[in-house]
Amino acid sequence: MAWRYECGPCGVTTGWLPKEQASAKRDEHRDTAHPGMIPTVEIFESNARPIAKDPAALRMWAVIAVVCLLAWVIQIIH
After folding, report:
1. How far apart are alpha carbons 66 and 46 in whole angstroms?
2. What's the pTM?
3. Is 55 helix (H, G, I), strand (E, B) or coil?
4. Contacts with 6 (C-beta within 8 Å, 6 or more apart), sequence order
5. Based on CB atoms within 10 Å of each CB, which residue in 31, 35, 46, 70 is the most buried?
6. pLDDT, tens digit (0-9, with 9 covering 90-100), for 21-38
7. pLDDT tens digits, residue range 41-62?
8. Nearest one of 43, 35, 46 to 8, comparing CA atoms
């Protein structure tokens, strides 16, 4: 998973980076371009897809739930 930062007033955008690096770039930009204040509009976003919008992930969690349920039922029966 990668993160990027965008400063609304300046339009400065980082590339997709690990979260720590993107956060450091955000702090560096704030210190140099906007010392002593936080820009009014900032975007700090991840490229990860929400699970609700990822059918494959939902199917995977459904399979895991079914396997756990079956294991629990088998354990109760024996």
Report:
1. 30
2. 0.59
3. helix
4. 12, 13, 14, 42, 43, 44, 45
5. 46
6. 999 999 999 999 989 888
7. 999 999 887 767 778 888 999 9
8. 43
